[in-house]
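User: Can you recover a sequence for this backbone? Please restate the input before giving your answer.

Assistant: Of course. Working from this structure:
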């Protein structure tokens, strides 16, 4: 990969940095386009469409390169670099950039950034992507990553955290909601593999009674061990929820008990570590619905 020996817009001439006439004109144009509302990516696309070289023989524009030009106050002039734009133009462009920076001032320590579990689409089960837009009234929308689903859920961060807290409190107040998993239907990978092996063995025709019996008993033992383990997890959940009602969201309780969140346009569902699902209507604090895994 080639590297520029001097910043875009300039050239060396007799050991002195001077203006590159073509590139300096492009720099001025980039600032004007940005001030007048064209995004960084749109400007880069325009440069490529017009076959404007970033380096000799290379039309290699991207969002990052445009941003670096907008960010660089060297274009207002220094002892070494002659001025391409005035300070007023530079300040106008960077005020535009600051206004567009939706991540500025975001508190990454807030609860929404520390959930650390999958947020899933209720329609198709695919992960949802959080898009935060400060300029929108809704603030946050969750977009399904499945291109064939197109599910979009408008739900601001505070409401999501509030409803998760409501559900945790509902379980604290109603511990009987946490069920044993005798018929939870969760099967380990090892058990699935063994069942496939048994099926193929039975389809083969000639069956060794002792071998197939041993495999069936081993599979039953695996399933029993899994149920026993899941019931241990359930008992641990009951112990975790044996606490006073929450006055605010508890990241500690959430992290100890939850493995996933499923969202719909008016519904939230939490999956707990014993694979049990419990959900409630987002817009009503008093309406809850329990779902058992099948």
């Amino acid at each position: 990969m080639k590297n520029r020996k001097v910043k875009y817009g300039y050239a060396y001439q007799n050991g002195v940095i001077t203006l590159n006439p073509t590139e300096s004109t492009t720099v001025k144009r980039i600032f004007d386009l940005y001030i007048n509302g064209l995004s960084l990516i749109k400007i880069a696309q325009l440069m490529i469409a017009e076959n404007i070289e970033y380096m000799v023989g290379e039309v290699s524009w991207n969002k990052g390169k445009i941003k670096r030009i907008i960010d660089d106050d060297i274009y207002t002039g220094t002892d070494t670099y002659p001025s391409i734009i005035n300070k007023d133009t530079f300040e106008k462009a960077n005020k535009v950039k600051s206004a567009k920076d939706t991540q500025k001032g975001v508190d990454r320590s807030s609860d929404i950034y520390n959930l650390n579990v999958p947020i899933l689409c209720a329609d198709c089960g695919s992960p949802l992507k959080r898009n935060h837009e400060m300029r929108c009234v809704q603030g946050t929308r969750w977009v399904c990553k499945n291109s064939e689903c197109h599910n979009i859920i408008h739900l601001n961060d505070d409401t999501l955290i509030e409803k998760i807290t409501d559900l945790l409190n509902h379980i604290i107040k109603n511990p009987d909601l946490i069920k044993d998993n005798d018929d939870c239907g969760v099967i380990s990978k090892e058990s699935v593999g063994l069942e496939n092996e048994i099926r193929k063995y039975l389809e083969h025709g000639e069956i060794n009674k002792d071998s197939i019996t041993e495999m069936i008993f081993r599979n039953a033992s695996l399933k029993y061990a899994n149920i026993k383990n899941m019931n241990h997890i359930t008992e641990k959940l009951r112990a975790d929820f044996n606490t006073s009602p929450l006055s605010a969201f508890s990241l500690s309780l959430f992290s100890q008990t939850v493995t996933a969140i499923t969202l719909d346009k008016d519904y939230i569902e939490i999956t707990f570590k014993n694979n049990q699902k419990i959900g409630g209507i987002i817009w009503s604090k008093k309406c809850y619905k329990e779902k058992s895994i099948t």
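That completes the design. Confidence is low (pLDDT under 50) at residues 284-294.
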